[in-house]
Amino acid sequence: MNFAWIVIFFLVFSGCDKDEDNNLPENPIILEFDFDEGAENWLADFADYPEGEEDFYELDFGHATLPIPLDTTQGALMITGNNHSDDLFMFIYYPVQGLLSNATYDVDFELDIASDAADDSFGVGGSPGSGVYLKAGVITHQPEKELEDDHHYRVNFDKANQAQDGEDMMNLGDVSNGTDEFEFAMIHRSNDTPFRFQTDSDGNAWVVIGTDSGFEATTTLFYDKIKVVFTLVEE
Question: Does residue 1 lie in a domain region?
Fold first, then answer.
């Protein structure tokens, strides 16, 4: 083999190795949902209520269209519950794929939600708007409710309580609809600072979004659009 062929052989195989090294997951990873075609694999559950009281609490979740006076041709995720316990937690969640294992990510949330809770309104136990706190976060295990010794359901992650930030969720604000009317209007919520999250050895992640309520009556929300951005933190 002469010198010219040796050079070509080296350049070709060096280039292959370089391509393999650069075959990393997309960064950032952007998830966007508009729910026009269905629930898009989002699921829901409820916690902070007594065992066997699902009917009394009027718990429901499903794919729907936006309510009047909004555009009723647009799809959304509808979730509702009657907060008899003064602490009902209603949450939706979604499994994320394509993240690196044992890696740190900064996560940003953008949510468009239809709410009928008027600003500065009053209700039983608290305001239907400012007394219902919207939270979002990411965890490494599937979110579930668990029955505790007091026969109440609690979640298997740290959301903290009411307006407080937890280890696994951050407060994005409340569900006040920006008007003085008790009719559905669109609200936009996002986080001012990223939510920092670390994957496990398998790269597992679940997005969790929910409301922690101090309003002792019915809250009904329509999640119209959800955007979640995972940005790899270079360490």
Answer: no
Q: Cis (ω within 30 of 0) for the bond into 28?
A: yes
Q: How many domains does the chain have?
A: 1
User: Is 159:168 a contact under the CB 8 Å cutoff?
Assistant: yes
Q: Note down the domain range covering 94.
A: 27-232
In the block, which residue shows the tokens 């010219």? 4
Scanning the structure block, which residue is given the tokens 């790899």? 232
Indicate yes or no: pTM above 0.90.
no
Distance between CA atoms of residues 181 and 98, nearest Å: 43
Q: How does DSSP assign 163-200, residue by residue? A: TS--SS-EEEEE-B-SSSSSS-EEEEEE-SSPEEEE--
3-state secondary structure of 189: strand
Nearest to 184, CA basis, from 175, 197, 171 = 175
pLDDT (tens place) for every residue of the chain, 235 residues total: 443 443 333 333 344 433 344 556 688 999 999 999 999 999 999 999 999 999 999 999 999 999 999 999 999 999 999 998 778 999 999 999 999 999 999 999 999 999 999 988 765 656 776 889 999 999 999 999 999 999 999 999 999 998 899 999 999 999 999 999 999 999 999 999 999 999 999 999 999 999 998 877 899 999 999 999 999 998 7
CATH number, domain at 205?
2.60.120.200
